[in-house]
Amino acid sequence: MNDGGVNDGDARDLDPLLERVRAACQALDPLPPEVLAAARAALRWREPGAELAELSGDHGARSEALAGAVRGAEDGAEDGMEDGAGAAGGPRTLTFTARDVLIEIEVSGTGRVRDVVGRLAPPVPARVRVRHPALVPGRPETGADRAGQFTFAGLPRGLVSFAFLVPDGTSIVTSWVRL
Amino acid sequence: MFVQDDIQHDVQDDPARLVARARAGDGAAWARLVERYSGLLWSIARSYRLGEADAGDVVQTTWLRLVERIDRIERPDAVGSWLVVTARRESLRAARRASARTGSAPGRAGDVGGAAVPAPPATRPEEVALARERLGQVAAALEALPRRCQSLLRLAALAPSHAELAAALGIPVGSIGPTRARCLDRLLRRLAP
User: Fold this and answer.
1) What domain of life does the UniProt record list for this protein's source (chain A) (predicted)?
2) Which neighbouring-strand residues pair with B77?
């Protein structure tokens, strides 16, 4: 597709008028430097070799309220849009699917913190790490018990991904999701 | 007008190559990708009428999605379009969350209809006033155009290629040329009555 723009019609063919549009937008609504810095730092969340567990379900009381929103064709399987717990007090349940394991996460709490109860099915005694751009990588960490259950209390809301180290040495990460 | 951070497009900037190097953990290649596309992703989020915090979240989420999938992305040469489509999906989600907070109706799926130049935040009034004066003509002309043209011109000014622009607008690559020409023409007429 992009071979230096030879066959690809560079949309920025330096039309002087477009150049002025770009300058105007850049001056009036610039990309904030902290957003750029966060994007540069995003690569540190790479987990080479980890299997990705995709979000396959997102249910909570407020998902129902939002079900009236138009679902675009480009919208994936998820229909939960809400932050944190459901409005009517029902917890929000997220399901992530990996090749051999299902990860279910129940989120509760309002305001700035979230409590998480998770379960691995089938149960695996895995080490579980929280990945959160606002937290030190690798913290907090806990272990899943014999029933495959694990808990985290008082996580800050925002983007989060859970990483699992399974006894056989393989690792699984969940897709990023907003708590 | 010379813009200092305009990135020279050479073989070093070939997206497929940058993705391959980032996969191998090359932070410099990753930074090039980030610099090349973040402005466009920001503009897409703003075209969904998101505030600064939500738009920043969309950009961050989009890059994290690329990190989580970087080993398996099928068309590394089309990473720009992949980022654009991802940013649109995340923008739509953020717009719905925002409308759930405020109780207003969310924008339609794929509705790139926000103002090209959103109302400036109150934190930078002097800078914005200066910029407005300097670029006032273009800004005023832009703001007088229909929303769709505003967005199209803003995205056209930032998209590295037609493929990414088509993905951002959700229209076929073939109709980019005429649509863009129409909007540019309207802008020109506003500038030179």
Assistant:
1) Bacteria
2) none
What pLDDT sits at residue A41? 94
The string of pLDDT tens digits covering residues B57-72 is 999 999 999 999 999 8
Indicate the residue type of B131. Answer: A
CB contact under 8 A, A81 and B70: no
Instruction: Give which of A143, A151, A145 is closest to A127, Cα–Cα.
Output: A143
N-terminal to C-terminal alpha carbon distance within chain A? 37
pTM: 0.81
Tokens linked to A123:
């149960």
**Structure tokens, B66:** 């690329």
Cβ atoms of A66 and B98 within 8 Å: the answer is: no
In tens, the pLDDT along B125-151 reads 666 666 566 677 888 889 889 988 999
pLDDT-derived band of residue B97, with 50, 70 and 90 as boundaries? confident
Q: Which of residues 43-102 of A touch B (CB under 8 A)?
A: 43, 45-46, 48, 52, 62, 65-66, 69-76, 81-83
**CA gap A103, A107 in Å, rounded:** 13
Closest partner CB to A22 (pick from B3, B80, B128): B3
Is B10 within 8 Å of chain A by CB?
A: yes
